[in-house]
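[audit] Reproducing an earlier prediction to check determinism. Same input, same settings, fresh worker. If the C-alpha cells differ from the archived copy the diff job will pick it up downstream; this log only records the rerun itself.
[audit] input (195 residues):
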Amino acid sequence: MLAPITSLSPAHRSPKYNRGFTLVEGMIVVALIGVLSVVSIPSLKTASQKTKVRTSAEIIKQGLVFAREQAMSRSHKVQFILTDDTNLTGLSPNATIIGRHWVAITLADPDIIGDIAENIGGEKITPTENTAITVSGPASLTFSAIGKPLALTLNSAAPTYSILVNGTLAYQVKVSTGGKIQACDPTPAATSNPC
C-alpha cells in the first residue's frame, strides 16, 4: 500500500495555484509605490524650481548679451532695463530694481541731429504663474558703443542681477567692468558654474 501524499512539489501542483499574485503581495507592491512617490515628489519639485531659476538667469544673461552686442554693432549706447511693465515695446518702461521683464533701448545721441531712441527688444524673465521667483538688480545698465558698462570704474563692484526663490538667493548674473557677462551659482557647494 502506498503512503498518502501530503504535499505536492511545485512541479506537481495544479496550474490554478501558479496564476497571479496573492492579495498580500499586491498590497506590498502598492505600499512600496506609495512610499517611493512620497519620497520622490519633493525632489522633483526642487529640480523643477532649479530649472526655472536657471532659465530665468539665462534669459537675463541673454538680454544683457543682446544689449551689449547691439551697442557694439550700432556704435550707440544701449540701455538694459529691468521692469515689471508687460508692454515691452515702449520707449520709457518703468525701471525697477525688482522686475519680471527686461527691455533694451538705444539711447538718442544729443550730438547727432535727428537721432532718436529706439526700443530694440525685450522678454519676460520669470513665468508669471511662479510668483516665488523674483529678479533683483540694477534698474538699468547702459552699455557704451564699445560694449562696456558705463559709470563703472575698475574699483567699483560688478553689477549683479540676483534670482531669488521665496526671497532666498538662488542664482546670479554678473557684468564685469570690461563687459563680460556670467551666470553663476552663488551657493558655496556649487560644483557647476560657481561664482
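[audit] rerun output stored. Observation attached for the diff report: The mean pLDDT is 79.
[audit] end
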